[in-house]
């Protein structure tokens, strides 16, 4: 876990340096930077809590015990929740850009604020699950509160927070957004669009509009007027194309379309890794729900007095594997950027002066 975490932090820091240099589609890149920052926080909290303190240290340091109830425990869960909803927000932003390009698109800051507010509202109860207590040797440690000892609360939070709000709802959103994007891209292969910067004109809609106004027109006349109207709209929308050959204009539109498709490939790659890593987490949490009666204070003290675990050993193993998957999910985005995003890869290589930049446009983002 620590090895994955160190690699992930290095990759994320590199991504934070490279992403601002990619000039196209600022909103998409800003949201990717937000995901990188949140994923880095996930790595720091999980590696520090689960790996370093939980595995390598013989006892918990004083500072760790003092900060666990009100800092480490709530913020560790908050970063994980924010990472989940950030992936959904990026999918929603791409959905708006690709499926509804003519409609109003909120600024990327609104998506980020939505993620932050939703995360805080969902994770507020985490601040009331543990408390600090004094021990006879004048040291302090953390202990569960009465809220955390309530079996009904444990089942409710496990079912509502872990299974529904950070499981079923985000997964449903990802399925909807990405399936809609896929169908839109697939549909574009069978229809002719006039791509104009970020907008396009549907010839079929224009034909229907003209026929509704001029029902008596012959089909040949409709086609003739339709062609003139499309040409006029395209010329008025992008006057800078005057003097450019039709071949160059067609190449520019194909280039724009390829950029859109490459962005979708990157997004789907991120989503697939996310789903694969988080499905295991949900399976483990469903198993934890069946053991909710074994995580109360009374059961813990009884098992502790007999020097036994208060939960099955297999659960501890599954939790470790689940944490490893979470770290992997937060660490591999840099690899995905390098594999899928040509412009990101080019600028990354330029950091080490591997090759000189070429004047040819090679951006793969939209």
Helices and strands, in order, run as HHHHEEHEEHHHHHHH
Q: Mean pLDDT, nearest integer?
A: 77
The largest β sheet comes out as: 2 strands, antiparallel
Determine the strand fraction and express it as a percent band: under 5%
User: Class by helix and strand content?
Assistant: mainly alpha
State the strand order across the main sheet: 1-2
In the predicted model, the low-confidence regions spanning at least 5 consecutive residues are 192-204, 218-242, 361-366
Instruction: Say what the CATH topology is.
Output: Rhopdopsin 7-helix transmembrane proteins
Strand segment count:
4
* Top CATH class: Mainly Alpha
Please tell me the CATH architecture by its name. Up-down Bundle
From the spread of the alpha carbons, the general shape counts as globular
How many angstroms does the end-to-end distance come to?
Answer: 34 Å
Into which percent range does the helicity of residues fall?
Answer: over 70%
Number of domains: 1
Please, what is the oligomeric state? single chain
Q: Helix count?
A: 12
Output the radius of gyration.
27 Å
Q: Any idea what the CATH superfamily is called?
A: Rhodopsin 7-helix transmembrane proteins
